[in-house]
Please model this.
Amino acid sequence: MHEVPWKEILHELKKLGAGCVLIQSPEGLRKEAEELARFLGENGIEAILHGEVNYGACDPADREAKLLGCNALIHFGHSYMRLHLEVPTLFVPAFARVEVVPALEKNLGEIKRLGKRIALVTTTQHIHKLGEAREFLEERGFKVVIGKGDSRVSWPGQVLGCNFSSAKVEADGVLFIGSGYFHPLGVALATKKPTLAVNPYSGDALWMNEEAERLVRRRWAQIAKAIDARRFGVVVSTKKGQLRLKEAKRIIKLLREHGRKAELIAMDHISYSKLEGFSFDAYVVVACPRVPIDDYENWRKPVLTPREVELLLGIRDDYEFDEITGVERNEDEPLGIAVHGVRE
Ligand code: SF4
Model:
């Protein structure tokens, strides 16, 4: 369970004069969303629960909130992302109730193998523990560097599955704190530095570089499968934080200049099953980088990232992970509000 800063949320909504709010939540925070809806109702604010699945701050339901006549959105589970939002949005991230120092202590021997100067990164869930981790490491003689990151992330040291800007600092190696494969794999690929992932839940540590090499080999196999493809479907997502129309058009131009045919396809949630019926030989996903990389086994046709298209066409020769870099926000747009009170 996560604690929800109910009073802080209510205070922010009152400040906004919101009479109706849409509450968007990932699967793991549905109960909290329900309780919050009840609490807001008791305090004179009409709340509507959003029932769609949500994977990231890149997909705020602000359009739906407006359509439903709500004048605010609560986006649970993810940190604030700079986007052009149609209604004021409260981003309420969920911080994990787990200590990180015991796992660091247990793996000190492995951490030493990273070198003296360490870049320290983590995901939103553990960002509130980054200071403690830094202190622990500095007391043991490490020089710890926490990168600022670009405007897509909310905090220094935070990485997203599509953005590793805070890991790209001058360091001997990168220490990732968190669970799961995708983020530390991305860190290893984006920085090309020795990367150690320390899992605060299990206490295990895992070197990511061999896994990253395996992933690159799998990706080269996808590129090889697309080598004879003549017709490409270039897929963009209409999710606000994944929409990369300019990049998709650049890829279409590149493909056409190299004698291939290419058409633009727009989707909300991208999956191969929805594309059955099109006759393209291969696809390029210019949206969340996790789609082609995590999900390629479910695609019957080769599926590439934009950078992999450049490899296919011989424009580049080194493998690079696909990333979405920060965007600038118009100053007159309603601003997303970060409510960072969800902590132990
Ligand atoms: S684009 Fe993908 S990796 Fe990035 S925040 Fe959205 S779901 Fe996460």
Summary: The longest helix spans residues 209-225.
